[in-house]
């Protein structure tokens, strides 16, 4: 089995957000990763509510004063979602939708919680409901597109991200994830354009910098890839993917001692991150 085949097998098996760069003569790297058991960063974006106990207490007081206000339930549900309390989040989104069956934001928020809990069919149904109610709701297209992308339905995912972008979304996820699809198709110039837009919209997020690094590797621009990964690490030095990508670049440069250090750091942060484990095995870790 070739190195490319081994990487493709391990990467696709262990992370739904990994992108294989076909046609590379050398090593491959991975794009943004998220554990299926963790609360994804999108929770922080739903209605921007904070998940502190103090804030949830304040929202509860608002609901007591306005028990038939769907907006109050939607906002508190978002706060519960941000805190990781998915059962209470679902309860509040259910109540918001019961009070207003055309509350498309609540459908999209509930869809995200369903996705976190692994109920993908319910998530898809809620995104579809949100889109039926409001065909111009960009976040529902982005959420549904991510469901499609994780399921390997990349053409449908691309269409949803494209639709959100056509709606003039300012959500960086649409550009980042469309970039990942361009990347998977070997269209790295388009991917780099999308990563650049995502960075302009979310300059403190390491994910598009890691995506940028992967395309630079595919194009043989190793120094540019190294700069992108190091920028990602400056933003968040507890990101296992960034360390693994840095290890891969050191490996490409023939600096195996430095590669080992980067791979080991990635595994300290995520002991189950198989791309880092495989990289460490390659460099004799």
From TrEMBL:
Q: Domain of life, per the record?
A: Bacteria
Keyword Signal applies: yes
Map the TPR repeats onto residue numbers: 70-103, 138-171, 172-205, 206-239, 240-273
Which residues belong to the signal peptide in this entry?
Answer: 1-32
Short name of any one Pfam family annotated for the protein: TPR_16
Keywords of this entry: Repeat, Signal, TPR repeat, Transferase
PROSITE patterns assigned:
PROKAR_LIPOPROTEIN, TPR
Q: Which GO terms describe its molecular function?
A: transferase activity
| InterPro entries, per database record | TPR-like_helical_dom_sf (IPR011990), TPR_2 (IPR013105), TPR_rpt (IPR019734), Ycf3 (IPR050498)
Q: Which Gene3D superfamilies match?
A: Tetratricopeptide repeat domain
Keyword check for Oxidoreductase, yes or no: no
Q: What is this protein called?
A: GlcNAc transferase
């Amino acid at each position: 089995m070739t190195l490319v085949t081994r990487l493709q097998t391990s990467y696709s098996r262990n992370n739904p957000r990994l992108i294989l760069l076909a046609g590379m003569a050398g090593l491959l790297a991975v794009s943004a990763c998220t554990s299926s058991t963790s609360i994804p960063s999108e929770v922080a974006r739903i209605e921007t509510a904070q998940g502190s106990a103090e804030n949830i207490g304040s929202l509860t007081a608002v609901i007591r004063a306005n028990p038939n206000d769907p907006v109050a339930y939607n906002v508190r549900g978002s706060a519960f979602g941000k805190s990781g309390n998915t059962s209470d989040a679902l309860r509040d989104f259910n109540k918001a939708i019961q009070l207003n069956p055309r509350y498309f934001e609540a459908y999209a928020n509930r869809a995200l919680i369903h996705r976190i809990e692994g109920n993908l069919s319910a998530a898809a149904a809620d995104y579809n409901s949100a889109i039926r109610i409001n065909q111009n709701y960009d976040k529902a297209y982005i959420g549904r597109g991510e469901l499609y992308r994780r399921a390997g339905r990349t053409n449908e995912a691309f269409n949803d991200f494209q639709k959100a972008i056509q709606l003039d979304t300012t959500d960086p996820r649409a550009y980042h994830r469309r970039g990942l699809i361009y990347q998977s198709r070997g269209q790295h110039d388009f991917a780099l354009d999308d990563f650049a837009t995502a960075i302009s919209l979310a300059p403190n997020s390491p994910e598009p910098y890691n995506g940028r690094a992967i395309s630079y590797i595919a194009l043989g621009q190793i120094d540019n890839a190294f700069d992108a990964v190091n920028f990602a690490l400056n933003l968040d030095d507890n990101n296992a993917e960034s360390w693994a990508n840095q290890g891969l670049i050191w490996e490409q440069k023939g600096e195996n001692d430095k590669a080992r250090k980067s791979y080991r750091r990635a595994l300290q942060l995520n002991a189950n991150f198989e791309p880092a484990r495989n990289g460490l095995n390659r460099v004799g870790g």
